[in-house]
Structure formats: C-alpha cells, structure tokens
Amino acid sequence: MHITLIHGPNLNLLGQREPEVYGVMTHDELVKQVQEYASASGITIQVKQSNHEGDLVDYLQYAPSVSVAVILNPAAYTHTSVALLDAVRAISIPVVEVHLSDIESREPFRRVSYIKDAVVARFFGKGIQSYYEAIDFLKELNK
Ligand code: DQA
After folding, report:
1. Sheet holding 44-49, edge to edge
2. Taking 90 as the threshold, does the pLDDT of residue 97 lie above it?
3. Residues acting as catalytic residues
4. Distance 100 CA to ligand 1 centre (A)
5. Within 10 A of 49 (CB to CB), how many other CB atoms are there?
6. Relative to the CA of 79, which ligand 1 atom is closest?
C-alpha cells in the first residue's frame, strides 16, 4: 500500500520554527520516522512539501495515480484555501487531515479548516503521533 504525504508552507523549517509549538524534530527526521512507522505495516510513503499553494493542488491531483490515500498537512493553507478544498473534493482517494499542534486550542483563526468537511478523518495536537494515527486509520480503511 502506497500513501502520499503532502506538507504545506513552513513545515520545511520544522526543528527551528517555534519549537515550543511544533517540537524540535526537523522535517527530514519527521519524515524518516513516519516512513519507518508505516513500513512496519508494509506501507510506503512518498513525501511532497511546498511553500506554494498551487504546488499543493498539483500534488493532490497527482496523488491518485500513484497512491491509495493522502495524508495532508496543509499548514497555514488549512485556514485559507478554497483551492485545496476543491482539490481534496476533486480526487477519488481518501484524504486525512493532520496537524502537529492542537489547532482547536490556539488562535481562533486556526479553528477554521476549509478542508475539514471533505476529509475522511482528522488527527491533530499530538505531534508525530497524529501522523501515526492517520497511518493506522488508513491501514484499517484499506483492509
Ligand atoms: C500546522 C498548524 C497550522 O495552523 C500552522 O499554520 C502550521 C502547522 C500544524 O501542523 O500544527 O504551519 O498545520
């Protein structure tokens, strides 16, 4: 089973960016650990990161041709992007929304997720554990 993991803006700066909110793990370390967790269940994960909204739309549109599901952390575009909502709706494979931080208990604007009604599940507020929960969810869904 192959999953596409899509990361939005500023997640490339993990480790140095607001470590009190997002932790000290770098983007490369996070990706490696998520891939290792998935591989224990025979799941492979391809990772795409961009700071540009249109790139994220392109990655979503491409994902169904190479994977059975998407794990999406759109970062700040979660709270602003109709284009990402439309892209999630446009593709035929399940998309799971993930965030490292607890977006429900931060600034009020982070409680808004444009994609939330279009995704099959949401996991947030548990750091890397949120990604593991997304993988476990998709594993069950694809049984
Ligand atoms: C984030 C939460 C977003 O509100 C923020 O803009 C991010 C990261 C998270 O993973 O906690 O960049 O998606």
Report:
1. 44-49, 2-7, 69-73, 95-99, 121-124
2. yes
3. 22, 99
4. 7
5. 20
6. 4
Q: Return d(Cα 35, Cα 12) in angstroms, integer.
A: 16
Domains defined for the chain, CATH in brackets: 2-141 (3.40.50.9100)
Cα–Cα distance measured from residue 80 to residue 22, given in angstroms and rounded to the nearest whole number: 20
Ligand 1 atom closest to Cα of 76?
Answer: 6
CA of 68 to the centre of ligand 1 (A): 24
How many Cα atoms occupy the beta-carbon half-sphere of 120 within 13 Å? Answer: 17
pLDDT in tens, 115-124: 999 999 999 9
Distance 133 CA to ligand 1 centre (A): 17
Query: Mean pLDDT score of the chain, rounded to an integer?
Result: 98
